[in-house]
Structures are given as C-alpha cells and as structure tokens.
Amino acid sequence: MAWFKKQKTTVEEPPRKPKTAEGMWLKCNHCREIIYRKEVERNHRVCPKCDYHFPISVLERIALLIDVGTFKEWDTDLEAQDPLQFQDQRSYKDRLKAQQDKTGRKDALVTGEGLIHGRKAVLCVFDFGFMGGSMGSVVGEKFCRAVDRAIEQKLPVILVTSSGGARMQEGTLSLMQMAKTSGAVAKLHEARLPFISVLADPTFGGVTASVAMLGDVILAEPKALIGFAGPRVIEQTIKQQLPDGFQRAEFLLEHGMIDRIVERKQLKDTLATLIGHL
What we know:
alpha/beta, carboxyl- or carbamoyltransferase activity, 2 domains, 2-enoyl-CoA Hydratase, Chain A, domain 1, 278 residues, two-stranded antiparallel sheet
C-alpha cells in the first residue's frame, strides 16, 4: 500500500499565437519603428513615419531613373582578378565567386546609357549588395570607360553611390582607383559635360573621398549617411562627442557639402531638369 498517492495534474497549454507571414514587417534603420513592408514598397521603399530612404537594388534604381526599355548596359564581362592572392578567413577568389552567384553580376558597379524623360544620359550605379559596394579595380575601370563613352557621344554622366569605400582585398590597387576615377571626372570637366553625383545611404570611405564628391551638382537622398570614417572612429580619434545628425545628408547640406536633398520620387524629374539646364 502506497503511503503517498501522486495526484495527476493537467497542464494547460499556452494559447497559440496567430500565425503571421514572415517578412510582413520591418524595422526602420532610422526611427526604429516597426512598419508594414507593403506600405514601404508602395512608397518607393521610403519609411512613411520618418522619410528615411531604404537602400534599393540596382535594378530598382535603374527602373526608377531610366525610361522603360531604354537602358543598355556596358562592360558586363569585366571581372576582378586576385593579384595579391589575398586571403583572410576565405580567399578573395572565393568571396568574389560567392558575391557573383548571389547578385548575378561580376562586380559592384553597373554602367550603361538610357533615356531620362527622353534625354540621353550615362548612368553608373553602385551595388551595395556586392561586397558593400566596395571600389576595386573593376569599379574604377568601368567608371572610366563609361566616361570615355560619354565624352565620345557628348552625354552627361550620372553616378549613384552606395558604398563602404575601397576594397581592402585589392590593397593599393584599390586605393589607386580614387585617383583614376577623379582623373576621369576631370576629363569630363574639360569636355564641358555635366557630372551629377547622387549620394544614397550609405556612402563612405574612398568613394566619398574621391569621385562621389566631385559632381558639378551633388544630390543626396534624405537621411543618407555620408562620410569618410564612421562616427565612432571619429569620436575615438578626436575624443569629443559629435553633434546630433552628424554625417547625415541634412547635416552636410547645412554645412555646404552637398547642393540639395531630393526625395526618391522626385529624383528622376530633378535629374531631367538639371540635364536640361546644364
């Protein structure tokens, strides 16, 4: 005979949470609010609460700026080499292959020509999805070839930047692209052809320190983060707290570093007007 009898207890199951489709909501990188993804997509991928402009793909950017069916891409076969045989946790060749498989393109810059409200122009767009839009030898070469074609055809050049800077896996060869692309812009100036730079979030490092800030007109998307070194690096270097909004497009406009902040939905009209005037 048992001295103790264990009572059977029934454990109530926790209420099941209603299933929600993954990816229906996203968090804004600026205001940190949770927002409905489809609402953002309907708004040209702009946050409806704070007007932050989310990064968009190269194809979305081209569709936004170029008349339908008029874009012709150039130099799609250019591919980076590995002259330094660079290796960290993975070899540079393996990293390149992985990025090419992921994005479907050879490197981080897409160049070509198309019509903007009927006006012919050369368009160069950085792909932040390809190794952070880093500028290596192929990026520099493609930009310079695009400039040469623009000079031959007497066309304006529009550059849309979204980059973390120079590509460390190519060392000094990557840093040399700063001088190379700057020299190409100088050739445009000599030919008296317009060069318009559009800074998207983020634009940093060697790209900011060279070609991105050399436009005859420099535009930026709202709240885009633009600079050379990151804010934390600067604070640690100068041992001072940085002002609010430091390195945002609005801060740069206030201090004369850029010419105008343009919302994404107005960018195509603004570029067409600038091309017409220039």
